[in-house]
Specification:
Blueprint: H1 3-13, H2 17-33, E1 36-42, E2 45-50, E3 56-58, E4 61-64, H3 72-89, H4 93-107, H5 110-114, H6 123-136
Helix pairs in contact: 1-3, 3-4, 3-6
Length: 142
């Protein structure tokens, strides 16, 4: 394990413990309910393909519902960016990124799409994509 991965894990499990507890509970829920289809690692994050049609990053966990999407890899890089936000922000992640991102996801809909707005225009989403791209060297959803 490289130094970057070790720091990522250490930050997640100490500074980012709150969102990792939430992520772990979601992970266990996917296993218990059968909604988790497969689990793999992506740059140190635990990625669970689940049956929901949405994706989210919570702590070092990514829940991925876009496996058949043409943009699946870009969305995965974006969600990985949320895990980096978690490691950097620690206890500030939930109020600064997690809650606003969930509210944005709930509010974003066909009306905004028709107006030419992208889901990734919101600050939490732009930021996650930028960090995901910088860390992995791959294109993220925009």
């Amino acid at each position: 394990m490289g130094l970057k991965r070790l720091m990522y894990l250490l930050l997640q499990l100490t500074w980012g413990v709150a969102q990792n507890v939430v992520g772990l509970l979601c992970f266990l829920w996917t296993l218990i309910t059968g909604r988790g289809r497969s689990v793999r690692l992506f740059h140190g994050a635990v990625v669970t393909n689940w049956t929901l049609r949405s994706s989210m990053g919570m702590g070092l966990f990514v829940f991925f519902g876009h496996g058949r999407s043409a943009r699946a890899r870009e969305i995965l890089v974006h969600e990985y960016g949320h895990t980096l936000q978690s490691a950097a922000l620690g206890p500030l992640f939930l109020p600064l990124v997690g809650v606003p991102s969930l509210l944005w996801a709930a509010a974003y809909g066909p009306r905004r799409r028709r107006k030419g707005s992208s889901y990734y225009d919101f600050y939490t989403e732009k930021w996650a994509s930028a960090w995901g791209e910088k860390s992995t060297g791959e294109k993220a959803a925009r």
